[in-house]
Amino acid sequence: MLSNILYPEDASRLMRDAGGIMVFAHPDDPHGTSIVNLTKSLQEQTEIIDEWILRYIDGVECWHSRNDAQTTNHYVKFAKKWTNHDRRKQLPPKTNHHRNSENPQIRSGTIQL
């Protein structure tokens, strides 16, 4: 019997084998692929990512139109920690920012790690 379940390790392998990268989008946004429903604590969120998700991803979104400064800074610090910890694990701050009427003044950007 075929399964409709795609486990994270399989999705990650398929994406990477196809030349793509896996980025965890808006981890603190309750409107998306978030872990905020598990915990509102940013420290606990990154502990969950570190223990359960990190091995399957290549990036984490640090900037999001609904992030406050504390959330953005927390995820930038987390991304820098992993980039500096293991150069094979490039975990740059990422954004999938979609310009929208909700926050048109926010623009995508990059930082040097």
Describe it for me?
The protein has three helices and three strands, in the order αβαβαβ. The chain is mainly α and 113 residues long. The protein has a domain at 20-94. The radius of gyration is 15 Å and the shape is globular.
SSE layout and pairings?
Blueprint: H1 8-17, E1 23-24, H2 42-53, E2 59-61, H3 69-85, E3 93-94
Please describe the structure with a list of short key phrases separated by commas or semicolons.
113 residues; mainly alpha; three-stranded parallel beta sheet; 3 strands; 35% helix
Derived from helix and strand composition plus strand pairing, the structural class reads mainly alpha
Q: What do the pLDDT scores average to?
A: 77
State the shape: globular
Order of strands side by side in the largest beta sheet?
1-2-3
Radius of gyration: 15 Å
Q: How would you sum up the major sheet?
A: 3 strands, parallel
